[in-house]
Amino acid sequence: MIHPVWRVVGAAVPGTAHRARNLGCQDAFAYRVLPQGALVIAVADGAGSAERAADGARGAVEQARAFLETTLTDHAPADDAAWRALMRDAFRAARDALTQLGATAQLPVRAFATTLTCAILVADRLIVAQLGDGAVIAQTARGAYVLAATPQRGEYANEAYLLSMPGALDQIVVTLSDQPLDALAVMTDGLLRLALQLPGYAPFPKFFEPLFAFAAEAQNANASAELAAFLDSERVCARTDDDKTLVLVARQAVPA
Amino acid sequence: MAGQLERTEFAENPEPRCAVALILDVSGSMAGRPLEELNAGLENFHKALKKDSLAALRVEVALITFGGEVQTTEFVTLDKFNLPALAARGETPLGQAVQHGLSMLRERKDIYKYNGVDYFRPWLFLVSDGAPTDEWEAVAAQARQEEARKGVLIHAVGAGKADFKILARFCAPERPPVKLKGLDFRGMFQWLSKSLSVISQSHPGSQAPLPPVQWGEAQK
Fold it and tell me: How far is residue A138's CA from residue A183's CA, in Å, rounded to a whole number?
């Protein structure tokens, strides 16, 4: 099987509200292209009210990424059930990492509260697992924009689903889809109101089309700095005061 | 390459809303200084929230007054809020006023849902200086139930000769009524505007703490 060559660009920047309160960025992301061509992405949004939120988010994405990388290097799941189980195990590993952080720091696990969203792209298969209000948007080879992971929200705008909460592992939503994709975006909630149309969270094409074009051409070391500058730009900050994380994936542009 | 990024356009979504039902006692006993202070506090509340650009877009206030009869205004954002000069008269139909407040908040949430507008947990802020002169027990039970299922957040404030045993029946055990220090309605409204600024700008999992209550004491 020939695997597509993916270009990946990611950035996370602190929101203006966090800067104003002297808090750093409490979002984190991690990704890895595996030798077999699979791509693993994890993003997390540390809860602002948790004292070690940034460490929680970082710990969760690193642990999930490492777990998926190790497991997928060994063997690929045989069927849908096995993929779902793999994602659940990755979230359990991430949650265990938070528990470990808590034990080391002698703090309750909620001090490391964070959301977690993971995506795996392997050939034409996309597997997404979600806990919290991150989002995953895919662009199909036919040009359609698809919401691959819906933000989980309670009734109220400030309610949260967090990896540190009791029963969190039962709240994970795993979705699988099989169709050729051209591009993928994984984000935290800081960008939701700019990228998705409420109600229903329909992807806003004029937001994604230029970003995916940017990712397809991205090949120098500056790309992630350019993406970070965009996320930190005045016109983005005028619309959201939260931390923002965006990982963009696009098929490599074929030279003419 | 960065030129691509400048081409991005953003979805237009309505601001999330925080509905607040202000339920104020304007019965005969509030006449004179108490009412003057209440009016002054309300005016400051209006000004303070209007100055906070995000809260001005997100906080929606409806005024429900009870003195002789119950009068209500529609939920509006602060720029559209017409500050009425309150006058004091008549008895204290507190039960009926809270009943109105609860059903207005429920209706408002339905409107948000229907229109796909995100919203915060609404507030019911009750101020009284006496004891109800109407049927209040069933309404109090309903208020507590609504609070227990997290449909609303209830704050009750008693001034002067308020009956705190009765006010407590409207409140969640963890949020007992507050006894106002003297006639510090200005301090109370200042706290309310600051608290609503905090709430209306909170994100999932990042509720900043509310300012301390210096204008009264919780009656446990």
Answer: 6
